[in-house]
Automatic annotation (TrEMBL):
PANTHER family, per database record: STAGE II SPORULATION PROTEIN E, STAGE II SPORULATION PROTEIN E-RELATED
Domain PPM-type phosphatase: 167-382
Protein name as catalogued: Serine/threonine-protein phosphatase
A UniProt-annotated Pfam family: SpoIIE
MF (Gene Ontology): phosphatase activity
Residues of the signal peptide: none
Annotated InterPro entries: Bact_Sigma-Reg, PPM-type-like_dom_sf, PPM-type_phosphatase-like_dom
Taxonomic lineage from the root: Bacteria, Bacillati, Actinomycetota, Actinomycetes, Micromonosporales
Entry keywords, A to Z: Hydrolase
Length: 391
């Protein structure tokens, strides 16, 4: 049996960062006998899939493939189809649950189970290579953007940890809008042993100054966390950092969560306005926490931790003010009724699709106007410590 995965993996490791897609194409043609391949990457708003290689596919083939590729991307399952005597395989490109895009492999003959398995392994290796290469070249980021990013948005996207992560106990996803002009809102997370830390920031102001404030806050929180600081110590260090920079004139509303992935116990510091909503058994209800001072409002502010438990099957949404309080044309805030309907509509969707649904409904709520504020949606699905491992 041809060691397809090993050969492709070696080819990817030897390739320059900006040539990963071409190296994969050559290797897949060689070991799987593919007629052609293409790598599609999701754009910043996750509204479409776009080819990495210019001229890689004829326009008619590209148009035909996009719809099937989107089905593969949404379901995160391989899709195959027969077209004019040839077979096309569409395979999700995902790393630890973060959905990057789709790999197309076109074959002359119908693939058997062995080929399907090899192709899936190749897609996994390619996804890992693309994620690593993304730090060394701008090529894949150019493929993902459909418009020029503002300077503030460029900074915010660089700060993000990713757009999703899936492990045995949980699935987590986040989305940031408006993707190309976002200013201060942000989300961050980290997985460390039996602890998942999630933060959502409701940044004050707009543009570059808001992005700079958020950058200071995120890095202060990370500095405390990476130094072994507790949740309250993370909040206190970030608060002091902001205060001594701006003397109380600027501050950042922040929600910090720490999930014990062995038990589902959640420790929380509510330092401002991001809202927390739990969906359990079809019932949607806010989790009421004692709201404390935003980070940076006063010197030497101390924060208290509150706790609650997650049950297997629970879904948590965290949303910034740009979602909860959005009130286009005086129609009433999105969070009053429309947001609950959107969240209930995600019942059968994975977390990565759920954040997109809530955000699309927010755009629809604005009808023909642009979002007037930054918006963040984070979704956490809690499976429990014995949950299925999709990593």
């Amino acid at each position: 049996m041809v060691d397809a995965t090993g050969q492709v993996s070696r080819a990817l490791r030897a390739a320059p960062p900006d040539q990963v897609a071409e190296a994969a194409d050559r290797a897949i043609r060689s070991v799987l006998g593919a007629l052609r391949t293409e790598v599609f990457l999701a754009d910043y708003r996750i509204t479409g899939l776009w080819p990495v290689r210019d001229g890689g596919l004829p326009d008619d083939v590209l148009l035909a493939c996009r719809g099937v590729a989107q089905r593969c991307f949404s379901s995160q399952l391989p899709v195959r189809e027969s077209v004019a005597g040839r077979w096309r395989l569409f395979l999700p490109l995902s790393v630890w649950g973060e959905r990057l895009g789709v790999l197309l492999v076109e074959l002359a003959d119908e693939p058997d189970d062995v080929i399907m398995g090899q192709a899936a392994d190749v897609a996994g290796d390619l996804a890992m290579a693309l994620r690593a290469a993304d730090r060394e070249t701008d090529r894949y980021r150019r493929a993902r953007r459909r418009d020029r990013l503002s300077m503030a948005a460029e900074m915010q996207w660089e700060l993000l940890p990713g757009r999703g992560v899936t492990l045995g106990a949980f699935e987590l996803a986040g989305q940031l809008e408006p993707a190309y002009t976002v200013g201060g809102d942000h989300f961050d997370w980290s997985v460390d042993a039996d602890r998942l830390t999630v933060t959502v920031l409701n940044g004050a102001g707009m543009g570059l100054s808001a992005a700079l404030l958020t950058a200071v806050t995120v890095n202060a929180l990370r500095n405390a966390r990476r130094s072994g600081g507790s949740l309250e110590e993370q909040a206190e260090l970030a608060s002091d950092t902001i205060f001594y920079q701006h003397r109380g004139e600027r501050f950042v509303a922040t929600l910090l969560l720490e999930v014990d992935t062995r038990t589902g116990r959640v420790r929380a510091v509510d330092a401002g306005s991001p809202r927390l909503v739990r969906v359990r058994g079809g019932t949607l209800a806010p989790i009421e926490l004692e709201q404390q001072l935003p980070l940076g409002m006063f010197a030497e502010t101390r924060y208290d931790v509150q706790e609650f438990d997650l049950a297997p099957g629970d879904r948590l949404f965290v949303v910034s003010d740009g979602v909860w309080a959005a009130d286009p044309d005086g129609r009433g805030s999105y969070g009053e009724r429309a947001m609950a309907r959107a969240m209930r509509a995600t019942r059968l969707q994975p977390a990565g699709e759920a954040v997109g649904t809530v955000m699309r409904e927010l755009h629809a709520y604005h009808v023909d106007t642009d979002l007037r504020d930054d918006a963040v949606v984070v979704c956490l699905d809690w499976r429990g410590p014995g949950g299925r491992d999709d990593g």
